[in-house]
Amino acid sequence: MSSKNMGICFNDSEYQFIEEIIQSVADSLHITTQLLKAYNRRRYIILSRQIAMYVLRMNTDCTLEVIGEHLGNRSPATIHWGIKRIDELMKNNTDLKSFVKDLIED
Fold it and tell me: Quick one: what percent of the chain has pLDDT higher than 70?
């Protein structure tokens, strides 16, 4: 998953790559991709979705808009906030940092 996609991610292979990342995150957290994409306000699901946002941002060059589209049509501001939150949480949580690093390198 460490290769970079370019730009806005229009073609089928880029779409598939994003969906594979989402599936990998969901599998690692023992939830469904439907839960990651759904409107669900449970803390565990929100944190899982934010992890997916972070991993997508680190593994692709896709815009925040495209990442948001893949995660249930969330706004770019929501994606930005989620990425920033995971970045902040990882500063104080070595387990989370290790988990996310493993996802990025997978």
Answer: 91
